[in-house]
Amino acid sequence: MSQLSKDFLWGGAIAANQAEGAYNVGGKGLSLMDIATAGKKGVSRHFTDGIQDHVYYPNHDGVDFYHHYQEDLAMCQEMGFRCFRTSIAWSRIFPHGDEEQPNEEGLKFYDDLFDEMLKKGMQPVVTISHYEMPLYLVKHYGGWANRKLIDFYLHYCEVIFDRYKGKVKYWMTFNEINSVILMPEIAGVLDRSRDDFIERSYQAAHHQFVASSQAVQLGHKIDPNNKIGCMVLTLVQYPLTAKPEDVELAEKAMRMKTFSFSDIQVRGHYPHYVKKHVERLGIHVHMEPNDLEDLKKGCVDFVGFSYYSSSAASSDPNVEKTGGNLSSGVKNPYLETSEWGWQIDAKGLRYILNRFYERYEIPLFIVENGLGYNDQINEHGYIEDDYRIAYLKAHIEEMKKAILDDGVDIIGYTPWGCIDLVSAGTGQMSKRYGFIYVDRDDQGNGTMKRSKKKSFDWYKQVIASDGEKL
Length: 470
Prior knowledge:
This protein is an alpha/beta fold. The chain has one domain: Glycosidases (TIM Barrel), CATH 3.20.20.80. The protein contains 14 helices and 18 strands. β15 (364-368), α13 (386-404) and β16 form a beta-alpha-beta unit. It is globular. The chain starts with 8 loop residues before the first strand and ends in a 6-residue tail after the last helix.
């Protein structure tokens, strides 16, 4: 095989909470991200206060994808997208999250959205829960540490699986499910100030594993054509040196922070090293009698994942640190660093693709990859984002090597933030990822006008040539 399959799903990715806006339109309830505020140290959340006067909440408007989706999808169609990844806002379907009857206006919005995608030749790729738990479930039930959330989530899943049967084939149960441990506030789960925070985090993770496995079973029952995957945040770490302690630290970090979550969802059981880890923490994770059987029955069909950067691991406590996607690590002296402190490592994508495929031998889906950059409009009113083109080109080259040289089975590639949107980690608009520029700044000013960046025509050429012309 010398070129990618014509069935390869080229596309792009956004999330409802970061792009849709319309936070109080069409019967939508408040979500956790609707109380996210931007700040120098990233987003913050007021768990008990809700919306406050004179506070700017960037997700309230996002980039108004809710009202602009036809225009936005037309631009994606022009690029040649074969798929479009987004999420469903849980609180748009169930405003509180615990209702019996769904919000019809919310369901209709996604009917129209998915119909528009299909009309334009794009497969919808849908994340069921993407950092936007209904705020009511946080405040009245305590989030995912409460087992009742499983039933609320499954009721939500049943409604959307039924409603969008025949329209949506590709689903993912939880976005970056390992963030329930890595960044529980972002995942919409817990309050760090509690003394039992660590135990509640692992209890919440267990509830999400059970909910995911039951959702897989339910989705397959409602429509056997459904392909339902997990989605993990990949934390690629290399040993800083050949020192055995550094090698051990790097492997342990990848195993516990990334592979443990995909192992459970792909293999259907808790691996030995997770059991030992929980034992060492001295915590108890409560399980109901059927939980472990559910994990076996509800194994995912594919592994979706995000990959942006890598870091190193060192036993030396004095080495320089670097940032990353909801994480940090040791700075690798051989890599360049973005203006947000994320190290650029295209070869790391091929590395993690092979690690996943050797481990599971089921299809993989690269559902997030991209470069956040403070794009500047030049004197011609244009954004020449050659830095983004260089980043994506290098990563696509490594993806192609994984497919063509290594034999890795990859469903598709959806770069993150194909349309500029609000950053989940910082609440900023200035941290841009898109091929499509949106006129909106960090203070909420701007016209929301869409325009093409240089990378727009470049990615159009990539897709048209199935990755041959980079």
